[in-house]
Amino acid sequence: MNKFKTSDYNTIKSALVNRNLKQALYDKGKVIMDGVLLTLHGDEHRKRRKLEHKIFQRNFFKYYEHELFPKTLNETIQPFLKKGTADLLDFGYRITMNLTADFAGIDRQKKSPKETEDLLSLVKIFSQGATLVHSKRPHDEVNKEVLVALDKFERKFLLPSKVRREKLIERFKNNEIAKSELPRDVLTILLLNEDEINLSEDLIKREIAFYLQAGSHSTANSMTHALHEIFIWGENNPDEFERIKNDTLFLQRCVHESMRLHPASPVAWRKSECPVVLDNNIQLNKDDLIIMDLHKANQDKEIFGDDSDIFNPHRIIPKNQFLWGLTFGIGLHMCFGRDLDGGVVSNENTDPNNHQYGIVTLLVKKILDEKGLPDSKNKPKVDINTERPNWGSYPIIFGERL
Fold this sequence. Notes:
Layout: E1 3-6, H1 9-16, E2 21-23, H2 30-33, H3 42-52, H4 58-83, E3 85-87, H5 88-104, H6 113-130, H7 139-173, H8 186-192, H9 201-236, H10 238-246, H11 248-261, E4 267-272, E5 276-279, E6 282-284, E7 289-293, H12 294-297, H13 301-304, H14 338-342, H15 359-369, E8 373-374, E9 381-382, E10 391-393, E11 395-397
Parallel strand pairs: 1-7
Antiparallel strand pairs: 2-4, 3-11, 4-7, 5-6, 8-11, 9-10
């Protein structure tokens, strides 16, 4: 097998939409990623995507953001506000885990702090397993932890959630309730399975675990990166900092700019199913691997300007490009959560009072509204257990800086 590397923006775009190249980044994380939507290819991927796309509709994202999210956000942040401090990663995981659990279809029967802590600890282990290719820990050790976590997750969270939904589905099939009365989540769609796709119990378990870790891990990190960039920008541009706090459409641009600089996955891997020619320098044979540097591609000067390596929310880009670059991918494997996390791109006719901003923007706005600032006595630390450029902790304080 030959390996090719590229950071060329247009070459990567061509590769991401090429149906003869299949996902390869998560091959080492098979203990949790084997057979989940993200790793499927071809007809199998098309069928599963069609099934689960019944949940991923833009009108539901908007309802989710405007109706469900505010209540969960306020409940989650209150203990941190009372304490006066927070770690952005911890807060981010807690709020997004609860939201993702609702979306995935995992019930929390007790709604207690202990129950939340238990699920959060499992989801963090799932994240380590999914991103095993970048882990600095012994891989066998991580895989063992993931298997134990999956078993605990199944017994404590998945099985009770399945039982409740299966009873409701049975009532629906017996015409006792309307379909609209069924929970609107991924687990219900998989159990209902109107497309009659072959889904084993283990596969459903991995699929739901994948959604939990993907949603909470990427969103928490995106929020933290965005706030870090905004804090630095605010120190150097005080007037702009006030605009960021008061103009949510501009704040959304700041978030999209940060997403460009800090893609959730800094690389994408694809393996060729047959000979593929991407450009003059990259001609793949069957089973060859191409490693694409999304982090560097997102800083292409021809697209994003001469200052493409720095945070600049005033950036002007070509009309056919997104400010976040290739962060959410494109084509069949484009991130399902793009509109949920990033919202809808605004334009000159956007009504700021009736706009879908995305969960990350609203999280950042809430922190800023509560006068959150970096804790000068406790510096942020990078995550030393992964090669991905993520924060390990990011302490903040609430209230005016003394």
